[in-house]
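Input structure tokens:
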């Protein structure tokens, strides 16, 4: 017989208890529930409405939306064909949200659309700490406003999440990628600057110089980084409108006490951005230092078929990386909740009684457990202990005849006799 099948590397099971895998403790299901509740809570405070889009999207949406020259589209899509349809497991949620916005004419809801989402994304990257093939994002998209306040709002939302999760020290990097008219000029300037040095560039960077020169700014190669020091700066190519927009975003962040560092070399791995781009880093994460990122993407709607641009800005962050940063910051994540009460039954009648009593207590709102396997009192008490329930109800056939049961407080050991019809009231926490 072959060995039992295992999960695919780069994916993971979310289990009832924390589990050490791949050098990090993966959060238990209760922590995920708490995290999702926290996102919903903060999103509510910001006035974001939830949107849920399918995990399967047409490959063309991602290819056109995220951009054909990006690593995501060139190397990392889980894409397949079925019949005559090309499917992709979504690698991100911004293009899908814009598709849904256009498809359902969400602008008709009136006003600016402020949407948030939570859900899995898929990228065929090499798995390592903080980098998975199935990971989980939360994010927001603000659609229908070209105002700098929308950019600052997306950033404020991300920073509020950092507070709510207590992720410790972070660094917000900010840049402006300019408008569609300034980027081609900058691209040419970069190409011209690097032309005499092409022999010194890595193969990847040489390719990028052809297909997507801005991505060279992202290089981790020491030699290339030194070359970049004298390279033309995108910020020197900004048009007046983009420059004013960038200045306004910075002023708003300053007013709100949101610290940031300007990084003229910050580019993002997705091609739809123009003007504002930002990334949030934590030193606690090692090589995969980005907790979240985002920016403005007024051109995306047209890339995926809209007749006119739709101003929009947003951000997304990875839950897994938020959890890693929380762990490094010593923030305690909620564990699996214990039952409020555990029933221990001695005797055949009592065992049957315990089943129906458990349903009554649950109906009364109490988290109620009992042992589905053992009948001996010793074994049941052991299970009661393991469950962590603060109180245990013990009943035998004779006690039931008297319409009573014993309630034991597990921390003090104190025992009280309680009438059966008063049990739920007595046990209510
Ligand atoms: P992104 O920077 O590609 O942006 O991803 C956002 C976040 O998702 C990252 O900062 C990281 O926390 C997490 N993430 C990405 N890839 C992985 C992975 N392989 N394993 C674990 N976590 C990962 C976007 O996806 C844009 N849609 C953000 C956006 C929203 N821009 C505008 N609106």
């Amino acid at each position: 017989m072959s060995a039992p099948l295992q999960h695919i590397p780069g994916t993971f099971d979310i289990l009832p208890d924390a589990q050490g895998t791949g050098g990090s403790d993966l959060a238990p299901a209760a922590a995920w529930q708490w995290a999702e509740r926290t996102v919903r809570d903060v999103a509510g405070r910001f006035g974001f409405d939830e949107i849920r889009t399918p995990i399967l999207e047409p490959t063309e949406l991602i290819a056109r939306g995220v951009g054909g020259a990006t690593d995501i589209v060139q190397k990392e899509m889980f894409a397949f064909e079925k019949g005559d349809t090309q499917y992709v497991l979504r690698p991100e949620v911004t293009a899908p949200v814009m598709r849904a916005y256009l498809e359902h004419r969400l602008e008709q809801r009136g006003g600016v659309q402020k949407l948030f989402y939570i859900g899995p994304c898929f990228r065929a990257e090499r798995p390592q700490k903080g980098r998975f093939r199935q990971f989980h994002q939360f994010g927001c998209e603000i659609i229908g406003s070209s105002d700098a306040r929308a950019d600052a709002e997306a950033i404020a939302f991300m920073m509020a999440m950092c507070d709510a999760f207590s992720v410790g020290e972070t660094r917000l990097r900010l840049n402006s990628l300019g408008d569609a008219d300034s980027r081609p000029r900058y691209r040419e300037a970069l190409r011209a600057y690097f032309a005499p040095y092409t022999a010194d560039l890595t193969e990847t960077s040489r390719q990028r110089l052809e297909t997507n020169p801005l991505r060279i700014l992202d290089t981790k190669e020491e030699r290339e980084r030194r070359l970049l020091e004298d390279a033309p700066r995108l910020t020197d190519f900004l048009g007046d409108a983009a420059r004013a927009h960038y200045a306004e975003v910075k002023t708003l962040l300053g007013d709100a006490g949101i610290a940031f560092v300007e990084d003229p070399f910050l580019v993002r791995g997705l091609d739809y951005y123009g003007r504002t781009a930002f990334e949030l880093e934590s030193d606690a994460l090692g090589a995969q230092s980005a907790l979240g990122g985002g920016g403005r993407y007024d051109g995306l709607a047209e890339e995926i078929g809209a007749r006119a641009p739709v101003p929009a800005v947003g951000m997304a962050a990875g839950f897994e990386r938020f959890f890693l940063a929380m762990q490094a910051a010593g923030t305690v994540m909620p564990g699996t909740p214990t039952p409020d009460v555990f029933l221990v039954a001695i005797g055949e009648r009592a065992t049957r009684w315990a089943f129906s009593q458990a349903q009554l207590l649950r109906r009364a709102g109490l988290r109620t457990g009992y042992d589905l396997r053992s009948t001996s009192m010793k074994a049941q008490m052991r299970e009661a202990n393991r469950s962590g329930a603060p109180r245990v109800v013990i009943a035998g056939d004779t006690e039931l005849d008297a319409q009573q049961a014993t309630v034991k407080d597990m921390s003090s050991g104190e025992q009280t006799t309680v009438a059966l019809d008063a049990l739920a009231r007595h046990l209510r926490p």
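The first helix runs from residue 29 to 46. The chain is about 35% helix and 20% strand.
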